## 1
Amino acid sequence: MPTFIVFALAGLVAQLVDGSLGMAYGVTSTSVLLAAGTAPAVASASVHLAEVGTTFVSGVSHWRFGNVDWKVVGLLALPGAVGAVLGAYVLVNLTEDAAPFMSVILLLLGIYVLVRFSSRTVAAKVVAGPRPGGKLLSPVGLVAGFLDASGGGGWGPVATPTLLASGRLEPRKVVGSVSTAEFVIALSASIGFLFALADEPLDWTTIAALMVGGIVAAPFAAYLVRILPARVLGTAAGGLIILTNTRTLLNALDVPTTALVTVLLVLAVAWIAAIVVAVRSARRERAEHDAATAEVAQA
């Protein structure tokens, strides 16, 4: 029961961040499983099986709050499903110890998420023009789906910033559409893993715990996407991913304990500093927005 609660809390926190940002459930949950000693392919399979439930509830929740553009969902999901199946088979057929490989991918994704949200302004305006089409969405879906299954995460970190950067879709609909399309990716990757890992035992208690935690958080996350500073949540998630996977990678390289602790402490201090910067930036942006609104009201 204590283990179930721990993984349920991990799933809850991961989904709360993912549903609010359109990213981080996979990389966060997979990082936790790898840190607990789970084999890479089994970790990714477990997370994707849990995501079948969490992404379904998340998608319905985002739809209910009006955060979904269904055309974007379709153009992302179909090539994403193909990429996810390919990624599942690639990961299963890697060498026996693929943990360092996955940790490198997750570490890079964590750095990207941290930098993306701590030092740059999250897109807040929509540039005039048509919604993103297949020329953008199909390659993004294929790459994001492949990376999501092979690296244990990557759907959101690839798809969400790309669509935000395009400036052609309202930010809340970027998050909602990416989160909704993820159901198809999770289902496709899960089917691929179940066939590829037919002889590999899965811990269904862990899968259930991650799913339960994610399902509980999904409706709240879909609502919070409108009210919480994405900058702060993204910075927090990125730092957690970096710390967890740096630890896994350094352990795989047999780095001495003293050096390991030193590196983690340095990263922790940098993470805290990034969160402080993110909080201050979010407050400043909020103040500037309120001031601009007040000027418009007085004019």
Note: The chain has one domain: 2-298.
## 2
Amino acid sequence: MNNNKLKVIAMIPARYAATRFPGKLMKDLNGTTVITRTYQAAVSTKLFQEVYVVTDDEIIFNEITNHGGKAIISKKEHECGSDRIAEAVEDMDVDIVVNVQGDEPFIEKESLEDLLAVFEGEDAHQIDLASLKTSLETEEEVENPNHVKVITDKNDFALYFSRSPIPYVRNKEAEITYYKHIGIYAFRKNALLDFYRLPMLALENAEKLEQLRYLEYGKNIKMVETKLKTIGIDTPEDLEKARLTLDNLKK
């Protein structure tokens, strides 16, 4: 994608003390830490004018800068990645900010190009932020609360996100595809800063899904379908799966 009109940067929020798997971003992934591999993958897409890791910890800051990357230390404590990114970009001259998850080192250029392309589409003026979704294939995946589900309107704008299976299928003859939300976002800078300044409301607090804050305040989230099947590293088992995936890619 040739994005001459918009200045697009990538931000990778990186918290060291992850609740479920502390220190996961500094774990070895076949000779390179998870966070460095993610940073390098974002840079290698060549879609961004700049790529930064924004972190709360000097260990991660030093890991990135020692490998020639760009990193920013957060000034405040933050509950979510969007807040961490918003603080970092507040005084930057940018149009679109892409949030790349630090624990997803297998980001892929084609999906990111599709995500950014919506900001040049016919309904671009309606879009506050965009994100990715992919179909879920098994009942186990649909029922798993760690797979966040999303439903959209006919124009692919998000109606709701939930850890529960949505929609509930009362009519068993209805043909329904369940979609998993992939937590890669492209924000207009203004929408991101609005999020940062607005308090959490009830739905976000209940589901613990920050994207619900945007919907609760009337922001428009454009969803882009992808075939990308990410490996998010939330557990030691996920790390092993990622290592095997890299081994297989080399064969």
Note: The chain has nine helices and eleven strands.
